[in-house]
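Appendix B, example 12.
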Amino acid sequence: MDKTKATSGGLFENGKIIILINENSASASEILAGAIQDNDRGQIIGRRSFGKGLVQREMPLGDGSAVRLTVARYYTPSGRSIQKPYVEGNEEYFNEFEKRFYNGELYEKDSIKVADSLKFKTLKGRTVYGGGGIIPDIFVPLNGKHGDEATEMLMQSGIVSYFVFEQLDQNRKEFEGLNFDSFKKKFEATNVYVDKFENYLKSNGVSLNLNSHEPMVKNYLMAEFARQLFEEEKYFEIKLKNDLMIQEVLKR
């Protein structure tokens, strides 16, 4: 077994560390989160990470295809395997991510099922778990309610960007002369663009009642308008204001 150890001369030996992870955090981000957690160096906030802990070597074949051969695995300092199990077959392995939606794991920490045999100890004796992915110290559910995933995914798709681009192309004079603060006040005072977006979806064959998701939809729309009117930074300033993970970090 090859072991690589860091030196004692790190760039950030002291200071508060908080790492955010979710179901899309994989590979290198999991290695870092696991090392910080096992050494009690900081707090991990969010949801269980993806579970990608294999090192693969690609070998090209003569017909242009390739074989990826697993040559190593990543483990955290306490000995936890980052890789999620695949002993039950390929179908079970690839459907594991989807199961997290259905079993409620993304909304309730208690829905994360880990065998007692996979208990490990951090440097200071805290209990952490293996079995695939990094389980955070502080759980934060998805924004919204269980069952809202379709709307959330829709609002993260390119259709929002296309809609906003067309609206600005048609009504740019409405936003001329506005700074960022006056833009936000103007947008927050009306639901006209939420209604227009719902009609836009219908015209593109998507039938979706946005009434019960209005705050989320409006936040996404306002953020996208801000990105196209101002800059990328303003998108995140609006979008992350209601983000539950960011709110949890600000409590620390």
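The longest helix spans residues 214-229. The mean pLDDT is 89.
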